[in-house]
Amino acid sequence: MAPPKRMVALGAICTTAIFQVQHILSAPAKILASNRCTVVDGMAISAACAFQKLGGQATVWARVGDDPEAQAMRQALAAEGIDPNGLFTVKGTQSSHACVIVDAQGQRLVVPFHDPQVDTSAGWLPLEDLSNVDLLHCDVRWPEGAETALRAAQAQGVLTMVDGDVAPQEVLQRLMPLADYAVFSDAGLLAYTGLHNVQEALRTVAQQHSRHVGASCGEDGYYWIENGQIAHVPAPRVDVVDTLAAGDVFHGAFALAVLEGQDITSAARFACTAASLKCTRFGGRLGCPSRAEVLLALEQPS
Question: Helices 246-259 and 264-279: crossing angle, nearest 10°?
Fold first, then answer.
């Protein structure tokens, strides 16, 4: 049996309290939650957890605070089978936290806190370790670290993927050209290009990008450019409970499928199925399905 594919995921990490309610009301209001959980997550971290659960081997590179929460984060990742040694303690700072409210339709309100005193420098990154991995995946929440790692990966011939979610346009313009696989959210793609149509935006980006350019569009599935044309895989229809981390699960699943040699259509179908199954479960990335569940769903008639 071939060894599992290896990925380093770089980005922001936080401890997130998730509450499930019937409706998200306008303030001032008090709403009783019907369910709650706490999870260690973040865009790249959730992608890494999905990559791991679906059959890969992931390591995360991220900054944590000088507090007991950081140790809890390390323990949570280790429990998932993920190497936590890439978590770097920034002295005198707090680890990140978030609160997420999820309504009965699966939509959410996200309130994150990141300590503004956290050092943004990337000098501590163990870039030499990239020689032992198949792909570097970055989100856009720590641009200094992402740019440093992406350039090092390029120099070492390691594949790169960037999660092009909503961010300041200058951050997206700085990072997305460094990606072999530029995998946007639909909103991030439109923010990057300043356009109002996903397909038009993909064509615009592809004119300046030598490899893969695509956009994950939630229930509308995945669009990408192939041989100069728009290609599309629809997402399976499911009863949505919680959309939190669905895009991150897509990224982790897509990265693994590509590394395992699937063509883009098959990889997109695999990733859309994983993300859709996640949406049927409360708990953010904790709802990521197993590989067996994804393969079983793929066998079902569309």
Answer: 150
